[in-house]
Amino acid sequence: MKNAPTAKLSRLLCRPILAACLLLGGWMVLAAAPKSAGEYELKAVFVYNFTKFVTWPAEAEDATNSPFVIGIVGEDPFGTTLDTAVRGESVRHHPIVVQRFHSDQDIAPCNILFIARSEKDRLKAVLQKVRSQPVLTVADTAGAAEQGVMINLSVVQNSAKMEINVKMEINESAVKSGGLKVSAKLLNLAKMVKTERDKTPSKP
């Protein structure tokens, strides 16, 4: 009897193993992920787990009972997967809720903002909307971290070894500009990326 839904994403895709992955290096391998686990099931678990490895400033948590909001802007690739991953979960006693925004014009206050691939041509406008706010921006679009997204994810499936590999890019200067702090464990796993405008021009 495995439904509820899909046994809470197979207990968040084997949460102890995911936590152990954060102690490895470079490419994270989730060899014990269910064979049927899709790309966005895995990414939903990672988005949820970022709440455990990122610290938000105290002022970002106003009222005691205010929710911790994970926003999705653009064409939602998760379906109900992210809702399932966070259902019943909380961040420092703040219940987690998922909100969806059609475009950058609709973005309301949130703690994490997942920027869908549909917004790749409007990425600058989305980032401008949350500029200097304590909002962890996450994407899974090539080059997003160089444009100022804080964490960019990519997934590679190795069907031969039945492994799912996740690679992270972190733009630490973007993280700091939002007043956030990322755990050293997470930083050590990621490729550090600079915003294009911050890169030192190479000498001729």
The main pleated sheet reads as:
9 strands, mixed
Helix/strand-derived class? alpha/beta
What is the helix content?
Answer: 25-40%
Number of domains: 1
Low-confidence segments: 1-14, 16-20, 22-32
The name CATH uses for the topology is Rossmann fold
* Gross morphology: globular
**What's the gyration radius in Å?**
17 Å
Strand content: 15-25%
**H/I helix tally:** 6
Number of strands: 11
Write down the secondary-structure element order.
Answer: HEHEEHEEEHEEEHEHE
Task: State the end-to-end distance.
Answer: 65 Å
Tell me, what is the CATH class?
A: Alpha Beta
What is the CATH-assigned architecture?
Answer: 3-Layer(aba) Sandwich
Q: What's the helix and strand layout?
A:
Layout: H1 4-21, E1 28-29, H2 39-53, E2 54-55, E3 68-73, H3 81-86, E4 90-91, E5 94-101, E6 112-115, H4 123-129, E7 136-139, E8 151-158, E9 163-170, H5 172-177, E10 181-182, H6 184-189, E11 191-192
Parallel strand pairs: 3-5, 3-6, 6-7, 7-8, 9-11
Antiparallel strand pairs: 1-9, 2-10, 4-5, 8-9
